[in-house]
Amino acid sequence: MKRKGIVLWSVVGAMAVGLLAGRCAPSVPKAAKKGAAAVSDVAVAAQKTYVAPGDLDEYYLFSSGGHSGQVYVYGVPSMRHLSTIPVYTPYPATGYGFDDDTKAMLGNLTWGDAHHPALSETAGDYDGRWLFINDMNGRIARIDLRDFKTKQILGPIPNVSGNHASSFVTPNTEYAVMGSRFSIPIPKGTVAPIEKYATDYKGVVAGIKIDPKSGEMSLGWQILMPPFDYDLGDAGKKVSDGWVFFTSYNTERATGKLEVTASQRDRDYIAAVDWKAAEKAVAEGKGDMIGGVKVLDPKKVPGIVYFMPCGKSPHGVDVAPDGKWIVGSGKLQGVTTVFNFEKIQTAIRNKDFTGEEDGIPVLKYESIKDAEVPVGLGPLHTQFGPDGYAYTSLFVDSAIAKWKLGTWEVVDKVPMSYSIGHLCAAEGDTVSPDGKYLVGLNKLSHGRHLSVGPSQPESSQLVDISEEKMKLLYDAFTEPEPHYAQMIKADKLHPIEVYAKEENKHPLAVWDVKDAGMTRQGNKVTVKVVEVRSTITPTSIEVNEGDEVTVAITNIEQTTDELHGFGLLDYNVNVVVDPGETKTFTFKATKGGVFPYYCTNFCSALHQEMQGYLIVKKKG
Ligand code: K7E
Ligand code: CUA
Description:
Shape: globular
Low-confidence stretches: 1-38
Number of strands: 41
Oligomer: single chain
Largest sheet: 5 strands, mixed
Helix content: 10-25%
Bound molecules: sulfanyl-(tricuprio-$l^{4}-sulfanyl)copper, dinuclear copper ion
Distance between the termini: 60 Å
Mean pLDDT: 93
């Protein structure tokens, strides 16, 4: 959910929060700390979140940075910010987007709107290998958790427009999913008047293939869909493995003021995609070429997708740990709907349909639904704990509801400050959730911190879910714009601290200062640079105006944390090289003159001495 268009909800939400807060205030503001009971509550919370200096957190939290285009890494339970992983946006702190490789990966785009991180899975459990994250602009990225760096950005891929329903992965990381939130005439570049929206605009849902060994992503399958807005996705697991689900809104196929025109129907749909059938159809050569990609049309390839009716404009869709239940949250309702996977299969077999949309059969709601759980107003997303509990974020109520799968009983609620969007429980979307912790990713922080002017931070609140009653433990203030996050047990990750010399296969790497220096071919100059405490070798580089200069820097350190930088002020160069790494940057020496370069990362007492000169000799 975005911040805009929620004004009305906020008013309703404020009332709801007021009511809730009276009942079960989770903690006491500092100024109002009085009485033994309140103090003990705060003391317990403090102890549960306190990670002593030198001690380590129990979990990593990977939080989407929204349109900052980055991923923020926090430790849980301390909620300390550990690191920022740049993905879709240049990040001077690590030199991301300045060297040749990361520049090429970003292309000409300097921002991306990232929403949903997805940790790679093996047999439905996080395996700690990669983190995928989508961008609204039809892209998906892979971060390697060995070094916490972005290794691949795929896209913008053809046909998918406004890739919000991404990047949820299948249980063995066979695919990450994509979907169009903004249907357009396809292929991209086709023009059709807005009056023809219902017929000439198309949505697409897609599976991005992932290589199980390398994590390399490539185009998998695409399916042509009616012009709805595909919102969230999730993969089936265990009994429902082989299926992926996508919520949609605007099944009215309306245009204009969607807040009115796209909320007419009582029910929109969740699309249930049989991805194994789609994969097979593509392998058999079925589909039509659109925008350079084979796209399956459900009219011609039946059996790959079905629609499940779901309450008004569903937002999140979340599959329970055993794969038996699919939870769809109609954000304009007071209930969340639980579908039974077995019943869905039976309805498909019996052709228990109530109609169709552009060749896609619509399943009969009553035949596939198990329950409408009265969780509260504005349900958005659901996560799971062990012992069959589910946790649903309530945007309008600004709270989290805890309820039981199977009995559908709502057992507890905890207020959030303020206006929760996603929530993230420890390994809470896997086949074996941990329980323990849950983080509410809130849209507004509402004065719970020192004011920093009109642009306030968002808030992420840590909730203890280890006991029957949920308890708020901690307020953290996070960078905009939080959407989803995932939490993984820290001992599943084994990050490296240096790049081993033997593993550096860069063709321009040099490991001895004797090998540093310059070679020239015509007006193309290559400079091999060695960085090691406390010299940049060579200490001066002389080129001619008009030369195309490639500088390859190898940091030959093999010591943890010994990073070196290369800042070249007038040429907008800012590269950071980790121990054992080689990076290149290429520029045209358009300006004559003398330009100092220096190490940007503090590396020793003689860090200030780590400097040199680029001399660009003027023509004529
Ligand atoms: Cu609910 Cu983009 Cu997943 Cu925001 S989305 S909340
Ligand atoms: Cu090298 Cu500072």
